[in-house]
UniProtKB/TrEMBL annotation, chain A:
<feature type="transmembrane region" description="Helical">
    <location>
        <begin position="161"/>
        <end position="181"/>
    </location>
</feature>
<comment type="similarity">
    <text>Belongs to the 4-toluene sulfonate uptake permease (TSUP) (TC 2.A.102) family.</text>
</comment>
<feature type="transmembrane region" description="Helical">
    <location>
        <begin position="46"/>
        <end position="67"/>
    </location>
</feature>
<keyword id="KW-1133">Transmembrane helix</keyword>
<feature type="transmembrane region" description="Helical">
    <location>
        <begin position="201"/>
        <end position="218"/>
    </location>
</feature>
<dbReference type="InterPro" id="IPR052017">
    <property type="entry name" value="TSUP"/>
</dbReference>
<feature type="transmembrane region" description="Helical">
    <location>
        <begin position="251"/>
        <end position="270"/>
    </location>
</feature>
<feature type="transmembrane region" description="Helical">
    <location>
        <begin position="103"/>
        <end position="119"/>
    </location>
</feature>
<feature type="transmembrane region" description="Helical">
    <location>
        <begin position="225"/>
        <end position="245"/>
    </location>
</feature>
<protein>
    <recommendedName>
        <fullName>Probable membrane transporter protein</fullName>
    </recommendedName>
</protein>
<keyword id="KW-1003">Cell membrane</keyword>
<keyword id="KW-0813">Transport</keyword>
<keyword id="KW-0812">Transmembrane</keyword>
<feature type="transmembrane region" description="Helical">
    <location>
        <begin position="79"/>
        <end position="97"/>
    </location>
</feature>
<dbReference type="Pfam" id="PF01925">
    <property type="entry name" value="TauE"/>
</dbReference>
<dbReference type="GO" id="GO:0005886">
    <property type="term" value="C:plasma membrane"/>
</dbReference>
<dbReference type="InterPro" id="IPR002781">
    <property type="entry name" value="TM_pro_TauE-like"/>
</dbReference>
Amino acid sequence: MSILTFTLILILGAYLAGLVGSLTGLGGGVVVIPLLTLVFHVDIRYAIGAALLASIANSSGAASAYIKEGITNIRLGMFLEIATTLGAVLGALIAIYTPTNTIAILFGCVLLFSAAMTLRKKNQEALTEGSQLSAVLKLNSSYPTAAGPVNYKLRNVGAGFSIMTVAGVMSGLLGIGSGALKVLAMDTAMKIPFKVSTTTSNFMIGVTAAASAVVYLQRGYMDPGIAFPVVLGVLGGAFTGAKLLTHINPSTLRIIFCIAITFVALEMIYNGYHHQF
Amino acid sequence: MKNSISKQLIGDRDVEKIVGQLLRFGVITASLVVLLGGILFLVQNGAGARPDYHIFKGEQDSYITFEGIFMGLFTFKPMAIIQFGVLLLIITPIMRIVFSLFAFMLEKDKLYVIITLIVLGIILASTFGGLKV
């Protein structure tokens, strides 16, 4: 295969990854890793480097749109970024001592969990009573809806912060945004309405990924020949996905993709278990 | 614009809008640079055989230091241009943090100035901690 053919096929593949990532809400990075390793037989370390870049591109691109609507809670994002960046640095350190097959198995597990999280029942309620800490940290806010702004308060700040640290470790170790874990921390622990938690999580992914990105760049994980088709493809796919989302209701598509991703996750675990990486 | 930008002049919503524009500008610039480098890369090497990405070469590869990337950039090497675009992409969210820091300073929100400084400190420590120049 020539470099030109490889690049064109990879752009197409990354475009589809960005599209699926955007329609399911999983993010492009998480689909890029199985695409590169299982389909193109690229070493998982190059795949992790490319996925980190895809996560940053995805997050920065989408966040700019959400912020415009005023849903993202910037203070909450900034506060929780202490946890995710610390975790990400820790994850990048652990990665040196972790065998690639273990990383593949761990990735498969996180992917399974993420697919399940996409299909869960979402937290629509806004709390009117928050914890004392949430008031001290000025985390309570409001977000716009069709029926006017809705005020919300939050609780379990400590638990949310802890889960965010784990999300950061996963992000640093696997090169993904770990959006599912971030949403778990905000939705389930801190009781934030899901519209706020998903957009704030997206907003945070770029910073979390940037915390470990330079470390990986210097370890040689980011190969220009892979980075270039992946970044452009994923961005294009995510852009199309965002446009499509305003016209179609993706609930059926989401279920189909999540089943497909479950099989992909199982294959990653299987291959990792049999030392294929 | 007046010399003193007070809380009235620059509110939370304005800050959010600027943050959004900053992120979009960073991503667009980074992808254009990556695209330029990619096209040059394909023109020069497109017919060559696909490198064996199955084997991880890691730090033997070039363009893993800031110095290497900038040296290659000034001699117009396609791989270095792509890596420079990659750097711009990584820097975009970090610039967002720096901007938020100034915004919280203008709002005189001491708590969030400290929180933002912690986040920035962690990222910069990680970036320059293992630096090989």
